[in-house]
Amino acid sequence: MKPLENDTFLRACLRQPTDYTPVWLMRQAGRYLPEYRATRARAGSFLGLCHSPDLATEVTLQPLERFPLDAAILFSDILTVPDAMGLGLYFAEGEGPKFECPLRDESAIRALTVPDMDKLRYVFDAVASIRKALNDRVPLIGFSGSPFTLACYMIEGGGSDRFSRVKAMLYDRPDLLHHILDINAQAVTAYLNAQIAAGAQAVQLFDTWGGVLAAGKYQEFSLAYMRRVIAGLTREAEGRRVPVIVFTKGGGLWLEEIADCGCDVVGLDWTVDLGEARKRVGHKVALQGNLDPNALFASPGAIEREVQHLLRQYGDGPGHVFNLGHGISQFTDPEHVAALLRAVHAIRSV
């Protein structure tokens, strides 16, 4: 395997010196790009796009053809794992992801098992295809939803504003929720390890809904299971360490505990002060983030000022991966993304 042309992202994840702050964007391949919309139209549906390794490769590379990004991220969806468990994933127009068979009764929950990873072969084939297409330009990030975030969708049957079913189960029947989380943790561990075996050079756990939990409940029902996943991951591949990123949206209150979970990088949403976060975690982990995605609706000049502000907050020294504090909006102007990347790369004293 030849060396990477640009390993800045991987070195920053491991708190090694870099010439500049590397940057990638959550949801960097998506609907804000006209070329993505064209490819999705050819695929016929979002799931059709996810299930085609060739098309997934195409859209993964689209933002790298436009922008000087320091990493690619696998194009897929966090709900592929529960879909492989037989819950029947589909996407309702204007309503987002739904499950035909949500986990609503004890018998269905007790019958839940870790899926055969062959059912997710299309994801691993996409990873291998993307690695080949990248030709070692930049690293490839694999990902999964966290056990708790997956459970939220599996129990609610789709997205939710209140998570009333999940919370009711948590308080009434914590044993059932723990069973779901145990199965999910086993599945996520196997899923990420298969991505690493296929060529992913870093992985991220998206704990999108961990922040809706109360203090104490977050530690019990989300963080504990992410810790289990991380403990089971392959951490060396192709002669180098595979960094693990944990991103809990709304997790700023528990930053020190997240930094102790075994990950290499903690992702931050936009509500956290980057400089204070650095003081709180010390030298334990690198930090990723954390521009407010809605800042990209402002003018390029304002975007540049916000980038400079965040880089000043972090200060000198290694261990920072620039990113948004959540996924990029589908309504973002690609020219504003270009302005963001120019601003990040213009400051090279790291």
UniProtKB/TrEMBL annotation:
Reaction it catalyzes: uroporphyrinogen III + 4 H(+) = coproporphyrinogen III + 4 CO2
Enzyme class, spelled out: lyase
Keyword Cytoplasm annotated: yes
Site feature: Transition state stabilizer: D77
GO molecular function, one term: uroporphyrinogen decarboxylase activity
Pathway(s) per entry: Porphyrin-containing compound metabolism; protoporphyrin-IX biosynthesis; coproporphyrinogen-III from 5-aminolevulinate: step 4/4
Keywords assigned by UniProt, alphabetized: Cytoplasm, Decarboxylase, Lyase, Porphyrin biosynthesis
Protein name: Uroporphyrinogen decarboxylase
Organism phylogeny: Bacteria, Pseudomonadati, Pseudomonadota, Betaproteobacteria, Neisseriales
Gene transcribed to yield this protein: hemE
